[in-house]
Amino acid sequence: MTMAQKLFSEDNILLETRKVNKFFGSGKKRVHAVRDVDFKIHRAEIISIVGESGSGKTTLAKILLGLLKASSGDVLYNGALRSLKGQKARRAYWQNIQAIFQDPFSTFNQFFRVEKILNDCLDLQGLGRIPIGDKREKMRDACQFVNLKYEELYNKYPFELSGGQMQRLMIARIFMMQPNVLIADEPTSMIDACSRSTILDMLLKLRAEKDMTILFITHDLGLAYYVSDTLFIMENGEMVESGNATEIILNPNHRYTKQLVSDVPKLNEEWDVDAI
Ligand SMILES: Nc1ncnc2c1ncn2[C@@H]1O[C@H](COP(=O)(O)OP(=O)(O)O)[C@@H](O)[C@H]1O
Ligand SMILES: [Mg+2]
C-alpha cells in the first residue's frame, strides 16, 4: 500500500456530501447549480475542484461551509450528519472549517485595523483573556508565517494594504484559527504570478505543519494539478470525473476533462510527474 492510499482510506474521511443538489430561482429561470454531488475529502488531503466559471464550484463551497442551504442531500463532517442548528453548533462547525475567497477585499471589515482583525481570531478560539504580550506574540508569529511584518501593519486598515498583503493576511488568520479544513476559492486569481506561487507555497506549508485538509477551487487545471492529491472535475453542476491528480492528467476519461487537459499546453511534459 502506498503512502497516499494509506492516508486516504475510507476510515479517514473528514468531509463528505451525499447527493447534494442546489437550485436557484424558480420556473423558467430555475438554475440547477449543483447536481447530485457525492464527494469525499480525507484528512490532510488536498483536493481541487476544477471547472469553468458558472459550473457550481462556489455554490458547492458555500454549502460545505454552511453559508448556503442545499436544496436536497446531506453533508457529513467527521462521519456524522452535520448540524448547524443553533449558534453554538454553527460556531463549533466554523472552528473546523474556514474559507478564503477570491476577493480579499470582501473578507475583512474595512473599518477594523489589522491588529483587531487578528485579535478577533484569538477571541474566536477562546483566547481572548490571555495576557496582551502573549497575544502579540501569536499575532507576530502568524504574520511571520506569511512574511508580513506585524510591527509595520498592525495599525493599518485593510484598504491601506496591497492585494498581495491582504491575501497574506487572510492566510495569517487561517494560521491562527487552525481549522481542520480550509476551503480556498480561487484565492490567487487577483494577484500576479509571482505572489501566486508564494500563496500556494504557504497553503502547502499549512498542510505540512498543521495537517490541514485543503479544498482548492480553481478553473486552472495546471494549478490544480500542481497542488493537489486528488482532482474533481465539475461541469454544469455535476462532478464528471474524479481521482488521483496524476492519473487524471495522464489518462482523462470524460470528454470535458480531455478538453481541459488539451487546453493546458504541454501539461504532461512541463511537469516532472515522478518528482511530485
Ligand atoms: N445567489 C444566486 N442566485 C441565483 N443564481 C445563482 C446564485 N449563485 C450562483 N448562481 C448560479 O449558479 C450557477 C453556479 O454558480 P457558481 O457556483 O458561482 O459557479 P462557479 O463558482 O463555478 O463560477 C451559475 O449559473 C450562477 O449564475
Ligand atoms: Mg466561483
Could you please describe the fold and organization of this structure?
- 41% of the residues lie in helices and 24% in strands.
- With 276 residues, the protein is an alpha/beta fold.
- The protein has one domain (3-111, 178-275): Rossmann fold, CATH 3.40.50.300.
- Strands 6-7-8-3-9-10 form a six-stranded mixed β-sheet, sandwiched between helices. Strands 2-1-4-5 form a four-stranded antiparallel β-sheet, with helices on one face.
- A hairpin with a 6-residue loop joins β1 and β2 (31-42).
- The two termini are 18 Å apart.
- The model has no long low-confidence stretch (mean pLDDT 88).
- Magnesium ion binds at residues 57-58, 185.
Task: Sum this structure up briefly.
The chain has helices at 3-7, 57-65, 87-96, 114-124, 132-145, 150-153, 163-177, 193-210, 221-227, 245-250, 255-263, 267-270; strands spanning 13-24, 31-42, 46-50, 72-77, 80-81, 97-100, 181-185, 213-218, 230-235, 238-244. With 276 residues, the chain is α/β, with parallel strands linked by helices. A hairpin with a 6-residue loop joins strand 1 and strand 2.
Which features would summarize this protein structure in a list?
globular, Rossmann fold, alpha/beta, 276 residues, 24% strand, four-stranded antiparallel β-sheet, single chain, binds adenosine-5'-diphosphate, binds magnesium ion
